[in-house]
Design brief:
It is a single chain. The chain starts with about 25 loop residues before the first helix and ends with a helix. The chain has helices spanning about 25-35, 55-70, 100-110, 130-140, 160-165, 180-190, 195-200, 205-215, 215-230, 235-245, 255-260, 270-280, 285-300; strands spanning about 45-50, 75-80, 120-125, 150-155, 170. Helices cover about 45% and strands about 10% of the residues. It is an alpha/beta fold and about 300 residues long. It has a five-stranded parallel beta sheet with strand order 2-3-4-1-5, with helices on both faces.
């Protein structure tokens, strides 16, 4: 089967630069109400925005941050893009946020202006803090500095230390609806015809739609489904498909989407473990992908 035409190039805004927030009005209103009443009822200093990746948690966090510090107070950001090592050098290839990054932020806070303006600390995301960094944040949250708001972005609440979670106001944000996803697609992909299947494939995450479009993953998924439904598909066809999926770990999840599409619930736990094993066991990841595709094909 010939590969489909490659997707166009997309330039999706970083959450810091994104003024478009779609959905999550309930969470925004909850904060706005608390902020408006802060003179009579002290606002909780730690807000934890939790939910699946790509639904707009960081976009909301930056929107709140801009309002609170108002370009007058101080704004501190902890994320992988600003990660540093013990020598203070950038760690652009890091997968976890180091304790040195957190310590450097705390030092800057201690030297920041005491003018009385609000300060904001935004962490995107808490999931990516290593253990030492999490403990350093915990010490800071045990006695939060006055007039300081902490905005913690969390993808998996289970990944957060219970002691950190207990000191936060947890706001659980829901996946986006199909109509909300369509609104974002119209804004950021106006020339693209994003079908209902692709929207469902995103599981309510515009971030996933963006990732699939950048990688051509939506087209690969469509080809995968077509191949699985083809009674004449051969082992060679399955290996060709495996080789298209294997190079991008972000695409491995489309195998689980295919399992869900065909209602093969019994394969889900096995495939989940197999996907997790691909990176650490297989020198040639396409072999692991091929085995999963073969198991799906056998059940159809």
């Amino acid at each position: 089967m010939a590969p489909r035409k490659q997707s166009s190039s997309y330039n999706f805004p970083d959450p810091m630069d994104n003024d478009t927030l779609v959905g999550h009005g309930d969470t925004l209103r909850a904060f706005m109400d608390a902020w408006a009443a802060r003179d009579t009822h002290a606002i909780h200093p730690v807000w934890m925005l939790t939910g699946p990746r790509g639904i707009g948690k960081a976009t909301l966090a930056y929107k709140i941050a801009r309002m609170v510090y108002g370009n007058v107070g101080d704004f501190f950001i902890i994320d992988l893009a600003r990660n540093i090592d013990k020598d203070g050098k950038a760690k652009s290839d890091g997968k976890v946020i180091s304790v040195y990054t957190v310590r450097a932020m705390i030092e800057r806070m201690q030297m920041s202006s005491m003018s009385g303006d609000w300060r904001v600390v935004l962490i995107d995301s808490v999931d990516e803090l290593n253990t030492a960094a999490s403990n350093a944040i915990l010490k800071l949250l045990e006695e939060p500095p006055a007039k300081t708001l902490f905005l913690l972005v969390v993808h998996q609440l289970a990944n957060v230390l219970p002691t950190v979670r207990s000191r936060a106001r947890v706001e659980k944000m829901r996946p986006l609806t199909i109509s909300e996803l369509r609104e974002l697609c119209a804004k950021f992909m106006p020339d693209e015809d994003v079908g209902t299947d692709a929207l469902k494939l995103s599981n309510g995450s515009f971030g996933r739609i963006a990732a699939l479009k950048k990688s051509g993953g939506d087209e690969i998924y469509a080809d995968l489904i077509e191949m699985l439904q083809n009674p004449r598909a051969t082992a060679a066809d399955m290996m060709t498909m495996a080789k298209r999926i294997a190079p991008d770990a972000a695409l491995h999840g489309i195998l689980l989407d295919a399992i869900a599409r065909f209602g093969l619930a019994e394969l889900y736990p096995v495939a989940t473990h197999a996907i997790a094993d691909i990176a650490r066991i297989y020198l040639e990841p396409e072999i692991g992908i091929f085995k999963i595709i073969s198991e799906i094909k056998k059940c159809l």
